[in-house]
Amino acid sequence: MAGSGSSVQLLGYWGSPYALRVELALKLKGVQYEYIEEDLTNKSTLLLHYNPVYKKVPVLVHDGKPLAESLVIIDYIDEVWKQNPILPQDPYERATARFWAKFADEKCVPAMIGAFVKQGEEKEKAAKEARENLKTLEGSLVGNQLIGGEKIGFLEIAAAWMGIWARIAEEIADVNLIDSETMPLLNNWFDKYLENPIVKECIPPWDKLLE
């Protein structure tokens, strides 16, 4: 196995969805790793050393070589450890999965955050944008064999965690982003993802996330 016997460390932060998806990729590959919890209000010298540019988690350190940014890390994990492929082998399908992952990160997530933290008209504007973008993401599920199947792949790892935080936003901020009537495919995709045993192993307890 490529990379067997090597040293793997993950610098993360409790509850971070971006650290979560790197953990999930490592577990799907069966890679042994050391998890190092970071305090983002008092960043460690280790984090500043390995990610001096952005000073953020997650950072994967493989045999002393650091990589930052979760989607880049997942790409790397899939390339180094060949077992249980995460990305499709077909070049077009691989590019498509990356496209929708980027769409989720750049379009869906910022609007969801806005719906969670903003107030009044700005909150409703962000929620409307989030729903529109999530509906666009749902359109990628129709007839797409890359996602929504039995096997967790790149897009599930990259985007399906949003189902957790969307429901937290609904409970705390009283804003409805996803439901079974307006986005049945997306809602079912999120539910299926959250029922996966490996995903359950990675996700923090619901009550702790709410806190």
TrEMBL record:
Family: Belongs to the GST superfamily.
Domain GST N-terminal positions: 6-85
Pfam families for this protein: GST_C, GST_N
Cellular component annotations (GO), alphabetically ordered: cytoplasm
Enzyme class: transferase
Catalytic activity: RX + glutathione = an S-substituted glutathione + a halide anion + H(+)
Keyword field: Transferase
Keyword Transferase set for record: yes
Record GO terms (molecular function): glutathione transferase activity
Domain GST C-terminal: from-to ranges: 90-211
EC number per UniProt: 2.5.1.18
Source superkingdom: Eukaryota
GO biological process, one term: glutathione metabolic process
InterPro entries: Glutathione-S-Trfase_C-like (IPR010987), Glutathione-S-Trfase_C_sf (IPR036282), Glutathione_S-Trfase (IPR040079), Glutathione_S-Trfase_N (IPR004045), GST_C (IPR004046), GST_C_Tau (IPR045074), Omega/Tau-like (IPR045073), Thioredoxin-like_sf (IPR036249)
PROSITE patterns in the record: GST_CTER, GST_NTER
Entries under Gene3D superfamilies matching the protein: 1.20.1050.10, Glutaredoxin (3.40.30.10)
PANTHER family from the UniProt entry: GLUTATHIONE S-TRANSFERASE, GST, SUPERFAMILY, GST DOMAIN CONTAINING (PTHR11260), GLUTATHIONE TRANSFERASE (PTHR11260:SF695)
Protein name: glutathione transferase
